[in-house]
């Protein structure tokens, strides 16, 4: 359906991680103004929109696959140390909106097993707990995420600057010149969506034993 002139432009990424009996399953997608731009199914990462050259995308694709493989191996090791007999599901939703008046809003929301878990407060680059129970788990995750620039300042920069810049270029640019400005999008897909995946290991450890 055609987008309303009053509706904001949007760039949104969704990513799910499910861990069960030591096995990890990944899936997700990214969309630019309602159009699918990237797709993640297992270890297969696809660029649906030609936002990067084939050579650049091949390098980026391999980075994602390598990271996910490493994460899955870590989960296998930890599950042998502290087995968990139920499925853990981590969902990340992040992105930004650009409104017709030029204002923007960025967000990052995390749910664990279907319940609000953490949110990222973009203006001051801080994580905030939303977990209504098992407070030690949320406190552990919040503390770990606040330690690293990639999950604080870098993430803030991506959401406030890179993400919004992509939408500004989409709104004002045309043709190939606009497409070139989308190059950071895949970097954002890795930085924003997969930066939190490592925290799942900590969450599983914290849930299965002591923090």
UniProtKB/TrEMBL annotation:
<keyword id="KW-0812">Transmembrane</keyword>
<feature type="transmembrane region" description="Helical">
    <location>
        <begin position="185"/>
        <end position="205"/>
    </location>
</feature>
<dbReference type="GO" id="GO:0050819">
    <property type="term" value="P:negative regulation of coagulation"/>
</dbReference>
<dbReference type="GO" id="GO:0005615">
    <property type="term" value="C:extracellular space"/>
</dbReference>
<dbReference type="InterPro" id="IPR011161">
    <property type="entry name" value="MHC_I-like_Ag-recog"/>
</dbReference>
<feature type="domain" description="MHC class I-like antigen recognition-like">
    <location>
        <begin position="54"/>
        <end position="169"/>
    </location>
</feature>
<keyword id="KW-0325">Glycoprotein</keyword>
<dbReference type="GO" id="GO:0038023">
    <property type="term" value="F:signaling receptor activity"/>
</dbReference>
<protein>
    <submittedName>
        <fullName>Endothelial protein C receptor</fullName>
    </submittedName>
</protein>
<dbReference type="InterPro" id="IPR011162">
    <property type="entry name" value="MHC_I/II-like_Ag-recog"/>
</dbReference>
<keyword id="KW-0675">Receptor</keyword>
<dbReference type="InterPro" id="IPR015669">
    <property type="entry name" value="Endothetial_C_recpt"/>
</dbReference>
<dbReference type="InterPro" id="IPR037055">
    <property type="entry name" value="MHC_I-like_Ag-recog_sf"/>
</dbReference>
<keyword id="KW-1133">Transmembrane helix</keyword>
<keyword id="KW-0472">Membrane</keyword>
<dbReference type="Pfam" id="PF16497">
    <property type="entry name" value="MHC_I_3"/>
</dbReference>
């Amino acid at each position: 359906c055609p987008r309303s002139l009053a509706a904001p432009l949007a760039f949104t990424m969704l990513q799910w991680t499910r861990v069960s009996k030591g096995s990890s399953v990944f899936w997700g997608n990214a969309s630019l103004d309602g159009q699918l731009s990237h797709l993640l199914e297992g270890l297969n990462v696809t660029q649906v929109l030609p936002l990067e050259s084939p050579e650049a995308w091949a390098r980026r694709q391999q980075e994602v696959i390598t990271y996910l493989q490493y994460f899955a191996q870590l989960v296998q090791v930890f599950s042998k140390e502290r087995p968990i007999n139920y499925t853990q599901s981590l969902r990340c939703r992040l992105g930004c909106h650009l409104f017709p008046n030029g204002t923007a809003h960025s967000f990052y929301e995390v749910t664990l097993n279907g319940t609000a878990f953490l949110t990222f407060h973009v203006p001051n680059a801080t994580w905030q707990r939303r977990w209504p129970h098992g407070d030690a788990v949320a406190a552990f995750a919040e503390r770990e995420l606040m330690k690293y620039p990639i999950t604080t300042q870098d993430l803030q920069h991506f959401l406030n600057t890179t993400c919004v810049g992509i939408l500004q270029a989409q709104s004002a640019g045309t043709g190939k010149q606009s497409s070139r400005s989308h190059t950071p999008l895949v970097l954002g897909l890795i930085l924003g969506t997969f930066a939190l995946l490592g925290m799942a290991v900590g969450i599983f450890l914290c849930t299965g034993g002591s923090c």
